[in-house]
């Protein structure tokens, strides 16, 4: 890769809690360079104590999301050229989550809400029964397919202003997971899902701002999934009165 | 916002929408050649129809606005729990009393 005689001015958020501060670095600019490359360069060449998280480097694992110039991005698939202005980069940990250290956000609240939203499989059969045949063209299956590529990167969670203002809100990823499982023909307890997303911080707290859909790196549509949950819970409300 | 509050707000909006359109349509129709207070009161006084029309509207507004302001109080000012419940009820009942008084004043009092 050709090294240009120019540098990126990178500001990185360091520390945690009350001790958060911004540290400036100069990083060589390359023709082809992702934001994760920049962070890795700093850690390997300037400060080995810089803490960040990544694994696959190809947009599959969902562990490297950070705020880049104020916007949530999957850093391994985000080219510096597309997001930097005047060779400047500001890199921070994901918004809406507690910070463990430097660029590492604590994902516990995010995954905790997945469980709260009942995005878990409720089997229709036991392992001793034959596997159920599913028609891939089935309408419910098609709807479920729309959400299964979620990599749990929490970019949508960091992008959501409702999450910022309402600590109880389950967030786009958890609700989209609930909608996906709800539409799974093999799921046996759909009313448990509807109950889980009908509480105080459930799907009805969503203001349809749409940042989740705008920022989702896999181009999924959590806002549409949440609208689906609103429709399903409304129908159930008229049927059962709750 | 849970499902009950959500349904209360959406259903009250459903009630309000045609009433708002009806209100605006009547206003445009009624004031075409100018109208006095006496003429308005002449039509509304003793009218069970107008009492029901605006009475329903006030009821729907009280529910709708109380839920809406409740969300704003929670998300913007961080008010929670009993304080939030109390404020929401106060807003709802307050609007109901103010609106109810106005409706009664032009229809029956």
The helix/strand series of chain A, from N terminus to C terminus, equals: EEHEEHEEEHHHHHHHH
How many β-strand runs of chain A?
7
* Radius of gyration over C-alpha positions of chain A, nearest whole angstrom: 20 Å
CATH architecture of chain B: Up-down Bundle
Largest sheet of chain B: none
Based on helices, strands and strand pairing, what is the structural class of chain A?
alpha+beta
Describe the strand arrangement of the main beta sheet of chain A, using strand numbers. 2-1-5-3-4
Give the helix level of chain A as a range of percent: 25-40%
CATH topology of chain B: 3 helical TM bundles of succinate and fumarate reductases
* Number of helical stretches of at least 4 residues of chain A: 10
Most extensive chain interface and residues per partner: A-B, 14 and 12 residues
Q: Tell me the name of the CATH class of chain B.
A: Mainly Alpha
Subcellular location (chain B): Membrane
Function (chain B): Membrane-anchoring subunit of succinate dehydrogenase (SDH).
Transmembrane segments (chain B): 12-31, 51-73, 85-108
Main location (chain B): membrane
């Amino acid at each position: 890769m050709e090294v240009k005689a120019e540098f990126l001015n990178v500001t990185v958020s360091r520390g945690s809690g009350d001790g958060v501060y911004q540290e400036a670095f100069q990083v060589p600019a390359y023709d082809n360079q992702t934001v994760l490359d920049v962070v890795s360069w700093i850690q390997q060449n300037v400060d080995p104590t810089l803490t960040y998280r990544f694994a696959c480097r190809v947009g599959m694992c969902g562990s490297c999301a950070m705020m880049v110039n104020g916007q949530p991005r999957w850093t391994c698939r985000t080219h510096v050229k597309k997001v930097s202005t005047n060779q400047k980069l500001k890199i921070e940990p994901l918004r809406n989550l507690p910070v463990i250290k430097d660029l590492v956000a604590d994902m516990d609240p995010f995954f905790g809400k997945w469980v709260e939203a009942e995005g878990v499989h409720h089997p229709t059969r036991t392992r001793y029964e034959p596997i159920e045949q599913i028609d891939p063209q089935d309408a419910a299956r098609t709807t479920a397919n729309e959400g299964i590529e979620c990599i749990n990167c929490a970019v949508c969670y960091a992008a959501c202003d409702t999450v910022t203002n309402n600590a109880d809100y389950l967030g786009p990823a958890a609700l989209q997971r609930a909608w996906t499982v709800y539409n799974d023909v093999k799921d046996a307890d759909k009313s448990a899902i509807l109950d889980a997303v009908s509480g105080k911080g459930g799907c009805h707290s969503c203001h349809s701002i749409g940042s989740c859909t705008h920022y989702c790196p896999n181009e999924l549509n959590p806002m549409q999934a949440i609208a689906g949950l609103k429709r399903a819970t409304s129908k159930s409300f008229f049927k059962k009165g709750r | 916002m849970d499902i009950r509050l959500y349904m209360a707000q959406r259903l009250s909006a459903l009630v309000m929408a045609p009433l708002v359109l009806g209100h605006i349509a009547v206003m445009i129709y009624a004031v075409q050649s100018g109208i006095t207070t006496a003429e308005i009161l002449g039509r509304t006084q003793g009218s069970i129809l107008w009492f029901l029309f605006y009475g329903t509207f006030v009821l729907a507004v009280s529910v709708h606005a109380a839920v809406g302001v409740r969300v704003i109080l929670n998300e913007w000012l961080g008010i929670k729990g009993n304080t939030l419940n109390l404020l929401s009820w106060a807003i709802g009942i307050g609007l109901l009393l103010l609106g109810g008084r106005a409706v009664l004043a032009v229809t029956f009092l």
